[in-house]
Specification:
1 helix, 68 residues
Length: 68
Amino acid sequence: METAAIAGMAMGVQAARLQQEVATGVMKMQMDASKEAAQGIIDMMKMSSQALEKSVNPHLGTMLDILA
């Protein structure tokens, strides 16, 4: 094999490795962003359900009966 061919293959392998690392990094960033968005939706749903519960039963939790 010629030296130029070996050098060309080495450059090709290095370029493929770099492309794979970049693709993996971008995918990790996307997964993190999706995870944060999902957590935001879950938090919003919890707050919404609590507000709905208070609007349906506004008297719950407003009085405390204590017997001595």
